Amino acid sequence: MCLAIPTLITSIEGTTARAEIGGVERTISLALTPEARVGDYVLIHTGFAIGVLDEEEAQETLRLFEELAEFYPDETETSQPTESTNFPTYQ
Amino acid sequence: MRYIDEFRDPHLARKLLANIRTRSTQPVCFMEFCGGHTHAIFRHGLRQMLPPTVELRSGPGCPVCVTANGDLDHAIALARLPGVILATFGDMLRVPGSRGSLQTAKAEGADVRVVYSTLDALQIARDHPERAVVFLGIGFETTAPTVAASVLEAEAGSLDNFYVLSLHKLTPPATRAILDEGEVRLSGIIGPGHVTTVIGSDAWEFLPRDYSVPCAVAGFEPLDILRAVAALVEMAEDGQPAVVNAYSRGVRPEGNRTALGIMQRVFEVGEADWRGLGRVPASGLVLRPKYASFDAALAFPVDPGPTREHKGCRCGDVLRGTVEPPDCPLFHRVCTPAHPIGPCMVSAEGACAAW
Question: What is the ipTM of this complex?
């Protein structure tokens, strides 16, 4: 029930916005995210945007995954780490 | 960046699994609080991919499932009142109460309508000024602000036929209740991503502080969940519990202050009845006295009758993580998706439905 879908805001009028969900446009409320702007991706939950997604943070997470990929060069789940014992950290 | 496909990359998932396998030496049991996580874990087959040292356990994070029978009976009694339209999210329709469900009440003539949003319920109230529209307020901190916003909108629009039956519940007190009972030994908690979008990752700091249990807040794509598991394994192995925000694109430490402000303006904290946990103090949301005129429980006193539990159903134990669905004697014998006995089989987020 706490499902929320990343959705692109295409236009804003007052406290409502038009957003594209799976190719379908619908009106959503920005009452909980007044900071949202056109071009932002927001998390939509039961017709309300509950949070604005942070692209920089998303890129940073993906960069961390790429670092990890270099650490485990083999293509299997039992891939062994490289010579280094400095494991990538998540904290 | 579309925020979905990027976090489903099988190549990167294999790397995360390699990291988990390399780092995990001691047996650990992590609880995913959120039913959305349970379903994502099953959908992507993550349980089978994890090493045998890492066990995942479903938690109480399904609002439909944790709604107590007595509260559901209350909602059904309200739906049966003449002149009332009961608006509800679709998940609640088939959940069996003590004597039937909202669906059977609807079949017998009650006006029960499924809505996608509280905004739809407000529109029904505008379209039917002669009727009382009761919105069934189910959900955690993700949903409660949307219901609070609808109460404020009803107030601003002088809509005097819109009511809420607030059965909203708070997730940190339920997590505390499970850890306090100590029936299942947990090495870490996968924090609910969208609840935490609202309440903020700081709200989970009590886990390492008071229980020495690490928490990793996770999004709902496979890489998000594997990253959270990797972080929990790392903290368990190092014996350094902390809160890790593994969903930083959608969660900030302080949460969504606007949403929290609206929720706190309309609701105050009160006790709540949870299926499986019983009455938990300070774990629910009730309308503040200023908004009492919107409270369906006050506006329409009803007697829902005595509460009856379903014989043999172990949903309560499943929600506390003390047993898994196949341990229930009814599971897949008499309780099936087509003929559910307990709410964990009904709800799209229930552990039994996911299994």
Answer: 0.94
